[in-house]
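[job 0412] stage=complex_fold ligand=3-methyl-2-oxobutanoic acid status=START
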Amino acid sequence: QGRITVPAIRARKGAEPIVCLTAYTTPMAQRLDPHCDLLLVGDSLGMVVYGMESTLAVTVDMMINHGKAVMRGSSNACVIVDLPFGSYQESKEQAFRTASRILAETGCAGVKLEGGAELADTVEFLSQRGIPVMAHIGLMPQQVNTMGGFKSQGRGEEAAAKVIADAKAVAKAGAFSVVVEGTVEAVARLITTEIDIPTIGIGASVACDGQVLVTEDILGLFSDFTPKFVKRYADLGDQVSKAVESYATEVRNRQFPTDDHCFGVTKPGKLRAVK
Ligand code: KIV
Ligand code: NA
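[job 0412] stage=complex_fold status=DONE, emitting structure tokens
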């Protein structure tokens, strides 16, 4: 029956919660796809997969390669790919060039960019030219240097007013949904009632129209740091360590491989003399 479309996601506003997780690879996408409405190929992959300290060094080529991998591993979810730092902020034309290339090469349904009021003209330019845009406001990891770290947003009247204005600006500009990250509950709740596109929360309370988290965070596969808003649903990192420890022990003790894992095993005595 095909993938969930961007208009279908938008139409979830006020109806049904939107389930979203990040995905970077084919095997993980295969596991997530049946359960998710949206798969986000996030630039968080720079930190989670490549061990970078921030998302700033992630390139368009990296996003395209991982976008293709996630598309190959999914058939149900709507796939959205992040525009990485430096690939869209310069001008709306630059943003269109980057986004159109990502859509054409990966086959994804749309792109996500970090920004509020200051990026509204870019959101509008893309949306009106066939590129669905998911905006991302509140805590914007690509602005780590201007923020001086990863800090929650919307505390105090002025800060709250800024996030609310950003939400309204991107909704008016034609974004089909908006990620609200690391934003105090009251502000996220207000935004969700005030704009007519779905809010996808990450550390922005249950009031949002949907939720997103980094998959490796909820599975216990990434523990360099764990933000307050992450809930851990499994400890796969522990399982990996235990499995690899067993393998290493068995190799060192010559317990692996056994005959079950070998080709052309000859029973002792049946071995023909080799001249
Ligand atoms: O890069 C990312 O994974 C994200 C989400 C967590 C919203 O932007
Ligand atoms: Na991101």
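The pocket of 3-methyl-2-oxobutanoic acid (ligand 1) is lined by residues 22, 40, 42-44, 82, 136, 179, 202, 212, 214 (CB under 6 Å).
[job 0412] exit 0
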